[in-house]
Specification:
The chain has 192 residues and is of the alpha/beta class. It has 6 helices and 7 strands. The protein has a 7-stranded mixed β-sheet, sandwiched between helices. The N terminus and C terminus are likely disordered.
Amino acid sequence: MTTHLSQVRASAWVQRFASRIPQGVVLDCASGGGRHARLLAELGYKVLACDRDAAALATILHPQITCVQCDLEAEDAQHHANWPFAPHRFAGIVVTNYLHRPLFPAMLDSLVPGGVLIFETFAQGNAQFGKPSNPDFLLAHGELAATLQAAGDFHILAYEDGYVSQPKPAMVQRICAIKHSDADTAQHLSLD
């Protein structure tokens, strides 16, 4: 069985789009043992690896990577999701094999204009292949693209929704989206 910590090879989706991220700090959200943090650091990015698992974070040893232990699913007294990062901070955010829908608004707001979101996780239908099988952790058909379209300030560079055979059979959704820069917004407004 493959665990989040034992996965050592970076996702092909992340490898494909990592170079689209502009220079700056990249957040590896729910980083586990840091397979994507290491890839990004080797590409020259400064990386913030965030996970609730201290043991997983302890395995990440790289001068370009800063580790932060936090439980992103903890809620405050007003039932707000725990997003400890400031708005407009990251040149890129990478999320794989993780889904906590209440984080989407704050996560998307944390990208700088021109920043890149690379997101890949499990989708409905995955139960036939094993875990996760709980619908709370599976994206509905088209949900990831719809979420970015509803945010209104993203250009979807690539999107897939369906079956993959590698690294193991699964139903997934994955997206690479670029947050519109101020220049993009001004150009869009002038065309209307």
